[in-house]
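User: I need a structural model of VOC family protein from Streptomyces edwardsiae for a docking pre-check later this week. Nothing fancy, just the predicted structure tokens so I can convert them on my end. Input:
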Amino acid sequence: MGVRKLGHVGLNVTDVDAWTDLFSRTLGVGVTFDKIGKEDVALLELDEFKYRLALYPSEENSPRELGWIVDSPAELERITRRLTAAGFTVQDGSADEVVLRGATHLRWFTDPVGHRVELAVGESKVRSAPARPVDAGPGVTGLGHFVLASPRLDELRELYESVLEFKLTDYRAPGLYFLRCNRTHHSIALAQAETTAIHHVEIEHGSIDDVGRAHDRAVAHGVPISISLGRHMNDKAISFYIRNPSGFHLEIGYGGIEVGDDWTPHDFGKSDVWGHRHAEANPFAASTP
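Assistant: Understood. Predicted structure tokens for VOC family protein:
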């Protein structure tokens, strides 16, 4: 009940063409174009739904919105009451925004670091399956998770755990927490940092071979691999990371575990089973056994 899954991420980007070229060449992902009012928007075809990742032409690179899918109108009302009681101002999305999201209901509020967080009921399927390269089977399957770093970590944890009722899956001292709203290991992770920034967005793949083929394409096209191929200790996903045109990471991953209500949160200690070598300093590095 309540928030069911990560639905969409919207980004203000200074170079839409570079983004769509990256997704086309490396991930075999198509793009459609739409408008919100008079504003253009590029929608990346990650799965059969209208979109999961939206790119808005802008003079700056910044988060535009983070969207969560809610179970029902009744649950949307309940969550609205919880947010209001916690001091957040909740507003209805515009008619144009509802249509663009493919939703039946849309509300939004501003989180403690100034990002717009949306709560949507309903999703619109617009294709039976997205087109993919002949060697991808099935290739990209959707949007996995979002990692946000901020000096206001405690306030973000309070929002997601106490108000939105996400559950803590595990953590890594000091200051890195993985939260879930369904059986997927995590849909958002929150980290301590000196400045607020997106660390990465994960693009989910259907098989380890699809991750490998994406890695081959990234190398062939000179895409910067910011974190090498590896396997995470906590969710067991196999992935690599690329640096996108806006400067943060995209994780190309497969194989994250699911957890149930009997799961016990714990410090998972070492960050990786193997691999995941950083091209630059790791902001979440910590001494581990």
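Before docking, keep this in mind: The chain has five helices and 17 strands.
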